[in-house]
Design goal:
Layout lengths: L13 H11 L4 E5 L5 E2 L14 E5 L3 E10 L13 E8 L4 E6 L12 E10 L2 E8 L1
Parallel strand pairs: 6-8
Antiparallel strand pairs: 1-2, 1-3, 4-5, 4-7, 5-6, 7-8
Length: about 140
C-alpha cells in the first residue's frame, strides 16, 4: 500500500485551525461537551446531543476500530495521482465519534471490520500534520 500523502489544505476556519493545531504539540484532541459529556467530530459550535455551546477540546487516546474502508485505485483529483492506490477508512474512536482518515502500514488482505487501530500523526507540510491510522 502506498503511504505517500499529498497535502490538500483544509478550508481555513477557526474550528478546523484549532483541530489541526493540537497535532503541532503532539496531541490528538476532539471536542467534548462540558454539559453532557458527548464527544464530537467534526468540530462544531454546538453540542449535537444537548444543544450546549459549552464545548472544549479534550485529548483522545488515539485508539479505534476499523468501521469501514475503501481502496482508491483511481485518483479522484489529478494532484492525488502519485498517491494511488491508497485506503481511506472510517475509524470508530474509543471515545465514540468516527473519523475519516487514511490507513498506513498494513496489507490490504488483512483489513477486517473491528480491526484495532492506533493513531500515527503524519507530517504533510511545514508545521502541518494529519491523523493517519495503522494496525495496533
Amino acid at each position: 500500500m502506498n503511504d505517500k500523502i499529498t497535502f490538500i489544505a483544509p478550508a481555513p476556519s477557526k474550528l478546523s485551525d484549532e483541530f489541526y493545531s493540537h497535532f503541532l504539540n503532539g496531541n490528538f484532541c476532539i471536542q467534548k461537551c462540558s454539559a453532557c459529556g458527548a464527544w464530537h467530530h467534526i468540530p462544531r459550535q454546538r453540542c449535537a446531543h444537548c444543544g450546549s455551546f459549552d464545548l472544549h477540546w479534550a485529548a483522545c487516546s488515539g485508539n479505534g476500530e476499523l468501521f469501514s474502508w475503501t481502496e482508491t485505485l483511481t485518483a479522484p483529483l489529478s494532484s492525488l495521482q502519485e498517491d494511488v492506490p491508497f485506503t481511506v477508512a472510517l475509524v470508530q474512536l474509543e471515545e465514540g465519534p468516527r473519523l475519516v482518515s487514511r490507513l498506513s502500514n498494513f496489507d490490504p488482505p488483512d483489513l477486517a471490520l473491528g480491526m484495532k487501530l492506533r493513531l500515527k500523526v503524519q507530517p504533510v507540510a511545514d508545521e502541518f500534520f494529519l491523523p493517519v491510522f495503522e494496525p495496533a
